[in-house]
Specification:
single chain, alpha+beta, 5-stranded mixed sheet, 186 residues, elongated
């Protein structure tokens, strides 16, 4: 009986490590995609920077309004790009969506092992080293999207059993909320 319990515990530990590796790999993929997209478009940004230095004072207000609209469009496009990359990184393990009301990219685990791991975090049962690896990766991605796309949208891991509850949230590379260190949101 003790041998069977020990095997179950070992199997559980192995599954948790595999899920952590899968998560880190997915987040690394997102990070790589952000870097590639930035490298591919950087030469265009350099060419456009010197396009027009002389602006008539009469047209300044109307062009400023146009710039605001373009900035808004660019920000929206960048959020869409980032959300799409995060979706690709978590394909098969989580659903990813952008919540424009709360300005957050939500990651909802769907893979059984990932769900179990996140539920253990919510219950306070998961070892901190696994969770630390996941949260460090989310922080890294949120920092990269700020640096490379100027997107300050938060990224959150959501409780799959109660999607109104965020378990972890990062913004611009910093932790906003962590259920492990901050406790329950209730």
């Amino acid at each position: 009986m003790k041998q069977k319990d020990k095997e179950k515990q070992t199997n559980k530990t192995v599954y948790l490590i595999l899920i952590a590796l899968l998560l880190v790999g997915g987040l690394a993929y997102v990070s790589y995609q952000i870097k590639q997209k930035n490298d591919d478009s950087s030469y265009l940004a350099d060419d456009d920077s010197s396009s027009s230095d002389s602006i008539d004072d009469d047209n300044e207000d109307s062009e400023s309004d146009e710039d605001d609209e373009e900035d808004s469009d660019t920000e929206s496009e960048n959020i869409s790009k980032v959300t799409s990359m995060v979706k690709k990184g978590f394909k098969g393990t989580a659903t990813v969506s952008y919540d424009d009301e709360d300005d957050v990219i939500k990651i909802v685990p769907t893979d059984k092992e990932f769900v179990d791991e996140v539920v253990e975090v919510a219950n306070g049962d998961l070892k901190s080293t696994v969770w630390d690896g996941i949260t460090n990766s989310v922080n890294s991605i949120s920092s990269e999207i700020k640096d490379k796309y100027d997107v300050t949208t938060a990224i959150a891991i959501v409780n799959p059993r109660n999607e109104d509850k965020i378990l972890y949230e990062a913004k611009s590379g910093s932790t906003v909320y962590d259920v492990v260190t901050d406790g329950s949101q209730e």
